[in-house]
């Protein structure tokens, strides 16, 4: 069984070949992405691989699958839990390094989508709905993976006092729990809605 870093590399090779990157550009971007996702607890190779696995399940339902995949690769490329502009900075980095992958207008669209992963607000944009659902699908993972995720998030906020963290984290999870529906697409509603609400109810009752 491949580990997350191996799968990460494989998915990147497939993507770079699909969009016809030169070997130099592909290697340069891979180095950037590989490094960026090596320094967190949750926002890591594992998270990107899990997102891409779901992307491959639904890519045939997308209008612009390349744009969605590019957004997945870059949506957490900048992640510092002590700042509030990670998505904006990730979008800027994508715009800088995405030249040649898509046209300027499409890159600007991807940048908007990356920024939208900050608040996960309901959208009327078909592909963005899928992107946001992919990013939130961890909430509907198996109970074991969900609890691992909760521990990973807590590790990223270890600098926050336990009391404050508990209050803030409960607020975030309660907001997701009360969202009806949590997922914006029928596919993800059927696949993850019930499991996500059960996971959230379990942790909120602790």
UniProtKB/TrEMBL annotation:
Please provide an example of a Pfam family that matches this protein in its UniProt record: HD
Matching InterPro entries, A to Z? HD_domain, HD_phosphohydro
Q: Where is the HD domain?
A: 45-119
**SUPFAM superfamilies listed in its UniProt record:** HD-domain/PDEase-like
What PANTHER family has UniProt attached to this entry? HD PHOSPHOHYDROLASE FAMILY PROTEIN-RELATED, PTHR21174
- The protein's name is HD domain-containing protein
């Amino acid at each position: 069984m491949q580990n997350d870093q191996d799968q990460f590399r494989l998915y990147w090779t497939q993507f770079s070949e699909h969009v016809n990157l030169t070997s130099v550009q592909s290697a340069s971007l891979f180095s950037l992405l590989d490094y960026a996702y090596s320094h967190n607890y949750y926002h890591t190779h594992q998270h990107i691989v899990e997102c891409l696995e779901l992307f491959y399940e639904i890519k045939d339902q997308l209008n612009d699958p390349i744009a969605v995949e590019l957004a997945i690769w870059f949506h957490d490329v900048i992640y510092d839990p002590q700042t509030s502009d990670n998505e904006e900075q990730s979008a800027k980095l994508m715009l800088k390094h995405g030249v040649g992958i898509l046209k300027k207008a499409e890159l600007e669209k991807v940048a908007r989508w990356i920024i939208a992963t900050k608040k996960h607000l309901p959208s009327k944009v078909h592909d963005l709905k899928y992107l946001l659902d992919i990013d939130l699908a961890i909430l509907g993972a198996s109970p074991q993976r969900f609890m691992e995720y909760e521990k990973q998030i807590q590790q990223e906020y270890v600098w926050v006092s336990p009391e404050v963290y508990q209050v803030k984290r409960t607020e975030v999870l309660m907001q997701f729990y009360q969202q009806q529906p949590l997922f914006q697409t029928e596919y993800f509603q059927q696949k993850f809605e019930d499991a996500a609400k059960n996971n959230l109810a379990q942790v909120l009752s602790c």
